[in-house]
Amino acid sequence: MKFYEVVVADAQGAERKLRVPSPTDVQAADAAAPLMKSGESILSIRETPDDGLQRTDGPPPRTQAEELAPTTPDMAARHDPS
């Protein structure tokens, strides 16, 4: 797991930095999304060195299987011969 700094800004230009764990920079945006306030946009994403403390503002992003599980429980393991 890598760590990313995601810089977000609101419509007035007020910026803030979020630090999230993620396997990739694209997924870092997914990890930052629940931490963003209404009207904020992502300005930049950059990998940051692991300082050994592993402090983050949120959890890693959910996998696709985790996101689909509530709507399609057990579908990944089910085989339909039709």
Description of the molecule:
The chain has 82 residues and is α+β, with helices and mostly antiparallel strands. It contains 2 helices and 3 strands; from the N terminus they run E-E-H-E-H. A 3-stranded antiparallel beta sheet has the order 2-1-3. The model has no long low-confidence stretch (mean pLDDT 84).
Placed side by side, the strands forming the largest sheet appear as 2-1-3
Distance between the termini: 40 Å
Secondary-structure element string: EEHEH
Q: Given the helix and strand composition, which structural class is it?
A: alpha+beta
Number of strands: 3
Number of helices: 2
Task: Return Rg in Å.
Answer: 16 Å
What coarse outline follows from CA principal-axis ratios? flat
Main sheet makeup: 3 strands, antiparallel
The stretches of 5 or more residues where confidence is low (pLDDT under 50) are: none
Write the layout of secondary structure elements.
Blueprint: E1 2-9, E2 15-22, H1 25-32, E3 41-48, H2 64-68
Antiparallel strand pairs: 1-2, 1-3
Question: What are its keywords?
Answer:
82 residues; 16% helix; 2 helices; three-stranded antiparallel sheet; alpha+beta
Quick recap of the structure?
By secondary structure, this protein is of the alpha+beta class. It has two helices and three strands; from the N terminus they run E-E-H-E-H. It has a three-stranded antiparallel sheet with strand order 2-1-3.
